[in-house]
């Protein structure tokens, strides 16, 4: 019989790997394909929905991992800090950038307008934060794998 602790540890690594894999897949494969194959409005709508679902999955998985491992910034372990930073970046993207981006898209804007420039800045900032989050995730996977082997 497999010890319960081993099952929890394996399930945590699987959840983390699925989350991080989804970040990279949606951000680097799915979204670019959507924009290559569909009109910009439809692609943006679908990508926004995918990112929203991914953000909420990340909040659930990241929160679960923090609670399950009793990780906190107060303990200041690298995994705890990375998870907290990942959760913060999701919150900033989902509740900071995404609503403004959606409002600008919904209102429509002319090329070269101030609204178009603002949309570009917000979208760029959200994209950079998303990439940083995905890099944090790969780093977290590597740290947990190294800790598991020692």
Number of strand segments:
0
Instruction: Name the beta content range.
Output: under 5%
Radius of gyration: 18 Å
Report how far apart the termini are. Answer: 23 Å
Low-confidence stretches: none
Q: What class do helices, strands and sheet pairing give?
A: mainly alpha
The 3D shape can be described as elongated
Number of helices: 4
Overall pLDDT score: 90
Domain count, please report it. 1
The helix/strand order is: HHHH
Which range best describes the helical content: under 10%, 10-25%, 25-40%, 40-55%, 55-70% or over 70%? Answer: over 70%
Q: How would a crystallographer describe the biggest sheet?
A: none
**Multimeric status of the protein:** single chain
Please, could you describe this protein's structure?
The protein has 150 residues and is mainly α. The chain has 4 helices and no strands. Helix 2 (40-68) packs antiparallel against helix 3 and helix 3 runs antiparallel to helix 4. The two termini are 23 Å apart.
């Amino acid at each position: 019989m497999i010890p319960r602790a081993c099952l929890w540890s394996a399930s945590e690594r699987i959840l983390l790997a699925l989350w991080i894999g989804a970040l990279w897949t949606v951000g680097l494969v799915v979204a670019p394909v959507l924009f290559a194959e569909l009109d910009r409005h439809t692609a943006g709508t679908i990508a926004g929905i995918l990112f929203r679902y991914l953000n909420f999955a990340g909040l659930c998985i990241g929160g679960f991992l923090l609670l399950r491992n009793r990780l906190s910034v107060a303990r200041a372990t690298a995994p705890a800090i990375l998870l907290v930073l990942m959760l913060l970046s999701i919150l900033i993207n989902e509740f900071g950038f995404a609503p403004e981006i959606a409002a600008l898209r919904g209102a429509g804007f002319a090329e070269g307008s101030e609204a178009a420039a603002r949309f570009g800045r917000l979208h760029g900032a959200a994209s950079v934060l998303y990439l940083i989050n995905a890099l944090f995730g790969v780093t977290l996977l590597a740290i947990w794998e190294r800790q598991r082997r020692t």
